[in-house]
Amino acid sequence: MIAVIGAGAFGTALSISLARNGPVVLWARDAEHVEEMQATQENARRLPDVALPQAVTVSSDLTCLAEADIVLVSVPAQKLRAFLETHGPKLAGKPVVACCKGMERGTGLRPTQVISEHVADAVPAMLTGPSFAHDIARGLPTALTLACGSERIGEQLQARLTTPNIRLYRTTDVIGAELGGALKNVIAIACGAAIGAGLGESARAALMTRGFAELVKVAEAYGAKAETLAGLSGFGDLVLTCTSAQSRNFRFGQSIGAGETFDSGVTVEGAATAEALAEIAQDAGLDLPITRVVIGLVRDELNVREAMDMLLQRPLKEE
Ligand SMILES: NC(=O)C1=CN([C@@H]2O[C@H](COP(=O)(O)OP(=O)(O)OC[C@H]3O[C@@H](n4cnc5c(N)ncnc54)[C@H](O)[C@@H]3O)[C@@H](O)[C@H]2O)C=CC1
Ligand SMILES: O=C(CO)COP(=O)(O)O
């Protein structure tokens, strides 16, 4: 049986799709939320208008983990450690698949590194790539990356987590898969800000392309392979997130560009990841101009015009 931790939009969507293969337990920490979902067969708080199939059991009781042979963890990256500090021992020895896209503030760690710190004999893996929760839940076709350091377990996870509407590609480059997914959210905030401020599609294309170069520079410095970054988890997700108003990171940037307020309850992974990235980039001697302006915009220390001037007035160089 597969257990999915975190009844947010993505955990719920994955549960719905995986239920086409067999039984799934979807765990939420809030018992009231669980009761609501059981009563309505819907996660109205996070993924409204999609029915939960019978094969999904919703629970706030983590004893269900004993029966699970694969555990997907779908809480925001900045909340992963808090969950594992309390419940990590229950996952010992199991394949634990991180479904969150981000880098931890204060440590710069990737989700699978946080898992390894808290789960004994962990077999950490990563599920990432271009996909909006609503698309997955509605059965629309998607292609994602399953990254696992163990070729053997990666193959098993690929087989078990492929569903009629999720086609999984496999890699052992966990670093590349994680960093591509984390960093594209930072670039999506920059693109949203450009569009929100009316700077136009040409500016967006420039930010996507130079943002991709920035993403590759960071990921390669940490040992990722260039071909992973050119794949679904890097380039693929960058394209989706920077061009769609379905993306929360993009919409957050758009609200900054337009000078509008944004609901602070919405998960925006790129804001914290930009800070985490800047913390480690300084030590690694990496110059990350787009990440720097995103931090300035998010902290409200820069307006979009100043941010664009900072980018445009940098010394000229080869592409
Ligand atoms: N929504 C989407 O379309 C996609 C989201 N993702 C990734 O999935 C991750 C989760 O995002 P969403 O599900 O969309 O967010 P969400 O905001 O819809 O839900 C987050 C869930 O995590 C739970 N949570 C927070 N802290 C927790 C803790 N300490 N213990 C247990 N549960 C906790 C919350 O109660 C909430 O149900 C993010 O890293 C995101 O980047 C990836 C692909 C698509
Ligand atoms: O990761 C995603 C798409 O692949 C979801 O993006 P947002 O978190 O910006 O909504």
TrEMBL record:
Single Gene Ontology MF annotation: glycerol-3-phosphate dehydrogenase (NADP+) activity
Positions with a binding annotation for sn-glycerol 3-phosphate: K101, G129, S131, K184, D237, S247, R248, N249
Keywords recorded for this protein, A-Z: Cytoplasm, Lipid biosynthesis, Lipid metabolism, NAD, NADP, Nucleotide-binding, Oxidoreductase, Phospholipid biosynthesis, Phospholipid metabolism
Protein function: Catalyzes the reduction of the glycolytic intermediate dihydroxyacetone phosphate (DHAP) to sn-glycerol 3-phosphate (G3P), the key precursor for phospholipid synthesis.
Reactions catalysed, as given in the entry: sn-glycerol 3-phosphate + NADP(+) = dihydroxyacetone phosphate + NADPH + H(+); sn-glycerol 3-phosphate + NAD(+) = dihydroxyacetone phosphate + NADH + H(+)
Protein's UniProt keywords contain ATP-binding: no
Annotated active site: K184 (proton acceptor)
Localization (cell): Cytoplasm
Tree of life domain: Bacteria
Organism: Roseovarius atlanticus
Domain Glycerol-3-phosphate dehydrogenase NAD-dependent C-terminal: 173-308
Protein name in UniProt: Glycerol-3-phosphate dehydrogenase [NAD(P)+]
Alphabetized InterPro entries for the sequence: 6-PGluconate_DH-like_C_sf, 6PGD_dom2, G3P_DH_NAD-dep, G3P_DH_NAD-dep_C, G3P_DH_NAD-dep_N, NAD(P)-bd_dom_sf
